[in-house]
Amino acid sequence: MIERVGLTPLISVLSLGYNLDQEGYTMHRVTQWVVFLLCVVSPGYAAAADYKVLHTFAGAPNDGELPFGPVVAGKGGVLYGTTEYGGNGPSCVFETQGCGTVFSLRPPASAGETWTETVLYNFTGGADGGVVYAGLAIGNDGVLYGATMFGGSGPCTDQGITGCGVVFSLTPPASTGGAWTETVLHSFTGAADGSYPNGVMVANNGVLYGTAQNGGTHLCPSSPGSLGCGTAFSMTPPATGGSWSFEILHEFSSKGPNVPVASLMSSGGVLYGTSYLAEPAASAALARCSH
Predict the structure, then answer these.
(1) Residue 281 CB contacts under 8 Å (≥ 6 apart), including other chains
(2) Cβ distance 70 to 135 under 8 Å?
(3) CB within 8 A of 239, min separation 6: which ones?
(4) Tens of pLDDT along 145-203?
(5) Whole-angstrom distance, CA of residue 170 vs CA of residue 177
(6) What does the pLDDT average to over 121-148?
(7) Phi, psi of 67 (to 5 degrees)
(8) Model confidence at 4: pLDDT above 70
(9) What's the rounded mean pLDDT across residues 44-49?
């Protein structure tokens, strides 16, 4: 069941006090993107909020660019995030360089020293996916989960790149300094399963939940290209080896909130998310989905 519970801005991002900043963005090219730390002091204290830049992205080919989604904190205070473009992969969209990266930022041993950034994976825009708008989710075993807007084996074509997007995992190496391993868990077809996924969240039982902006069986006249209105889905890990189980939880339609644009969050067994459209009464909506 989908229910609209109020209006919301298009995108709202929060993750453990960390977030991403964008500065100097021009069409197709970035002059500077940074990760920053913002410490908010509780009311009653005289000190002001503290702002510190942790990393400035250099762009392709040795670093990412356009860190669009939030970062998440893992064990030891290590931050994990994604960049929309950059990396050492081929050009994906327009004049951009690279198809995006997954990165980590490790805190210094002593306060005031430099954080250490490492590119964990460079997307190619092929079967592995490309162009990451959303942030990551971390499983209990330290595996990272995310989604790319494009790439994969689906037939979609947009902005010069093919593929309808993928859900992926990134498994840490067995030993320090080794390579992280990317695995495509689902490649969207642009049909009933959806297309252009926004990202995923991971529940305590390891099940992934996410949304896809388009696809599904309900066409949206106001959606670009009259594509489907989007889907909400779950992915259940296999008990022992094998493939993940993909299930559609909801197909959005033009009769209510549609074209979901962000990852989901859960509270009390209910999933919450945002939609870009909410016809016929509003241009955006906050919706909840429950079984």
Answers:
(1) none
(2) yes
(3) none
(4) 999 999 999 999 877 788 999 999 999 998 888 999 999 999 999 999 999 999 999 99
(5) 15
(6) 94
(7) -75, 95
(8) no
(9) 54
Instruction: State how far the Cα of 50 lies from the Cα of 34, in Å rounded to an integer.
Output: 16
Q: How far is CA 88 from CA 31, 85, 103, 167, in A?
A: 18, 10, 13, 21
| Selection from 263, 20, 237 nearest residue 143 by Cα | 237
Can the peptide bond before residue 280 be classed as cis, meaning omega within 30 degrees of 0? yes
* SS3 at position 167: strand
**At residue 70, what are phi and psi to the nearest 5 degrees?**
-75, 165
| Alpha-carbon gap, residue 116 to 143, rounded angstroms | 20
**Which residue(s) pair with 196 in the sheet?**
none
User: Do residues 256 and 249 make contact, with C-beta atoms less than 8 angstroms apart?
Assistant: no
What pLDDT is attached to residue 106? 93
Indicate left, alpha or beta for 221 from its phi (over 0: left) and psi (-120 to 50: alpha).
alpha
The CA distance from 182 to 85, in Å, is 17
- What domains are there in the chain, each with its CATH number? 14-254 (2.120.10)
In which region does residue 178 sit, left (phi positive, over 0), alpha (psi from -120 to 50) or beta (all else)?
A: beta
H-run or E-run covering 259: strand 257-260
Query: Across the chain, what does the average pLDDT equal?
Result: 79
Residue 188, burial from CB neighbour count under 10 angstroms (0-12, 13-18, 19+): buried
d(CA 150, CA 157): 9
